Amino acid sequence: MPRGEEPGVWAVIERQTGRFLGWVALPVEAGAGRLGYRFFRAFWGHGYATEAARAVMADAFERLGAASVAADTMTVNLASRRLMERLGMRYARTFFADFPEALPGSEKGDVEYVLTREAWQALRAERLSFVRATPADAARLAAHERRVADPRLYGPPLDHDACAREIAHNVFYFVEVDGALVATAAWKRREDGSAYLSNIAVHPDFRRCGVGRAAALFLLAEAKGCARVDLVTHPDNAAAMALYGSLGFAVESRKEDHFGDGEPRVVMVKCDRGVT
Ligand SMILES: CC(C)(COP(=O)(O)OP(=O)(O)OC[C@H]1O[C@@H](n2cnc3c(N)ncnc32)[C@H](O)[C@@H]1OP(=O)(O)O)[C@@H](O)C(=O)NCCC(=O)NCCS
C-alpha cells in the first residue's frame, strides 16, 4: 500500500463534502504503467473507483506517455476484475505470487489485466461522435477556440462573428465524447473539385489519444473522391506535421506570411492515392 508520497499516487476526495474516499495509483516507469486502487468499503458501488481510475489512466496515456497500463487482483475478486474490464483492460494472465499469509481464494492465484496504448486510442476513437455545427453554435466554438488557440503555431482565438462565419463557410463538425466538445474539424469542397481541410483542433485535455487522427480520417472519408485534398499548417507545429505526414500529406509549398500574421505556413497536399 502506498504511503502517499510516491509518484503517481492520488487521494480521491468527494467534491461536495471533501471526504477522503480512497486512493488510486498509477506510476509509469519506462512506458509501463501499473494501476492500483483501494476505497473505503462505505464508498464501494458508487462508481468512484471507475471515475478515479479512468482519470489516472487518461493522465498516464496522455501526459506521461505510457505504452501500456497493467493491473492485477486476486482471481476471486470479481468486483475488481469487472472494474478493469469497464476500463477497457483485457485479461492477460493468471499467476501465483508468494504471499506470506494465505487469504480465502488465494489458492486460485492472481489475474493480470492490460490495456495497451493502441487499444486505449481505439476505445477513445470509438466513443467519438461527429456532430454538424450550425452558425447558432458560434458561442460554443468561441469557447473551444479560447482553449485551443496558440497565437504562433495555430492562430489567435476567433471571436463570435468569425466563428459563425467559419461554421457557415465550411462543413463544420464538433467532435464530441459523451456530449463534451473535445475537438473541431471542418472541410469544404472548392469549385475545382479539390478539398480544403481546416479547424482540426483538439482540446488540450484530449490530445495524444487519437482524436486528431480520427478527426482527420473522418474528413478524408467525407472528401473521398476529391482528387486533391490540402490544408495549411505551421512548419514548427510538430504535432500537426507528424499527424498529417502519417496520413500521406506532403509539403507542397511554403509561404513566409501566409495569413498576414508574420508567421510562415506550409501547404500540405494529399493526392488521390488512398488513405492509410
Ligand atoms: C495537431 C493536433 C490536432 C493533434 O491532435 P491529437 O489528438 O493530439 O493527435 P493524435 O493523438 O491523433 O496523434 C496522431 C499523431 O499525431 C502526431 N502527434 C500528435 N501529437 C504530437 C506531439 N505532441 N508531438 C509529435 N507528434 C505528435 C503523432 O504522429 C501521432 O501519432 P502516434 O500517437 O501514433 O505517435 C493537436 O495537437 C491540436 O489540436 N493542436 C492545436 C491545434 C492545431 O495546431 N491544429 C492543427 C492545425 S493545422
Describe this structure in words.
By secondary structure, the protein is α+β, with helices and mostly antiparallel strands. It has 2 domains: 9-124, Gcn5-related N-acetyltransferase (GNAT) (Aminopeptidase, 3-Layer(aba) Sandwich), CATH 3.40.630; 127-271, 3-Layer(aba) Sandwich (Aminopeptidase), CATH 3.40.630.30. The protein has 7 helices and 15 strands. The protein has helices at 48-62, 78-86, 117-126, 138-148, 160-169, 211-222, 238-246; strands spanning 9-13, 20-25, 28-29, 32-34, 36-39, 68-74, 90-95, 110-116, 128-132, 171-177, 180-189, 195-202, 228-233, 250-255, 265-271. The longest helix has 15 residues, at 48-62. The chain is elongated and about 75 Å long. 27% of the residues are buried. The structure holds coenzyme A.
Question: What is the top-level CATH class of the largest domain?
Answer: Alpha Beta
Order of helices and strands: EEEEEHEHEEHEHHEEEHEHEE
- Sheet with the most strands: spatial strand order: 9-10-11-12-13-15-14
Bound molecules: coenzyme A
Q: CA-to-CA gap between the ends?
A: 45 Å
Helix content: 25-40%
Rounded to an integer in angstroms, the radius of gyration calculated over CA atoms is 23 Å
Number of strands: 15
Calculate the mean pLDDT score and round it.
92
Shape, per Cα inertia axes: elongated
CATH fold name of the largest domain, please?
Aminopeptidase
Structural class: alpha+beta
